[in-house]
Design goal:
It is a single chain. The protein is an all-alpha fold. It has one domain. The chain is about 75% helix and about 0% strand. It has eight helices and no strands. Helix 6 runs antiparallel to helix 7. It is globular and about 50 Å long. About 25% of the residues are buried.
């Protein structure tokens, strides 16, 4: 019941934010991730039965991403006060999302492999490698989308993606890695030590 409520909340927020995004093109590109990942999460949950906290963290992460897609990450109005408070020149909402990606998504990767009988340490390692790889691929896809779809001069396209930070891609990947490392630290200390109650997945099932 708890997970169904979260799905309903997610769908309601997705519909509300889809009505009038700041930039429809950016919204469509950012939602490729959503329409790909969220159905996959639902399928994986049916197969591996994520605990409620894991499912909640995934839902919150995707909802925060939806706000970034609606307002664009560069002009995330609800986060501007944070940058102004510290006197920063750019909006750091995108890098917060990368950090939360590592923090919230590592545990589901861990659970997928751990529930199949993989050792705890190896499951953490596989989850960490997945986070690192996806973080890198996201930056590559971001660059490709800029090359293919941005019709402005290269300098303006680059600023639109990186907010003028030449190390933006490296920082994004680093934040995801730091988030993943923190997730491993917290989960290894306070996470459940038992495998899921469902039987291990069998081939073809």
């Amino acid at each position: 019941m708890f997970k169904r409520i979260l799905v309903i909340i997610f769908l309601a927020i997705w519909l509300a934010l889809a009505i009038n995004p700041v930039d429809r093109g950016i919204w469509l590109l950012e939602n490729i991730l959503v329409v790909t990942v969220f159905p996959l999460v639902l399928w994986l949950d049916r197969r591996y039965d994520f605990n409620n906290l894991t499912f909640l963290s995934l839902t919150v992460f995707v909802i925060l991403h939806l706000f970034g897609a609606n307002l664009t990450y560069n002009n995330m109005t609800y986060f501007s006060w944070f940058s102004h408070w510290f006197g920063w020149q750019r909006n750091y909402y995108d890098q917060v999302i990368h950090f939360l990606f590592g923090l919230t998504v590592l545990v589901p990767f861990f659970e997928i492999f751990y529930h199949q009988g993989v050792s705890r340490k190896l499951s953490y390692l596989i989850g960490f490698l997945f986070i690192s790889a996806i973080g890198a691929w996201y930056e590559i896809l971001e660059w490709l989308s800029m090359v293919l779809f941005c019709k402005q001069p290269a300098e303006l396209c680059s600023i639109a993606i990186t907010q003028g930070d030449i190390w933006d891609a490296q920082k994004d990947m680093a934040y995801a890695i730091v988030g993943a490392m923190l997730a491993i630290l917290l989960h290894s200390r306070w996470g459940s030590k038992t495998r899921g109650s469902r039987p291990l997945a069998r081939p073809g099932k």
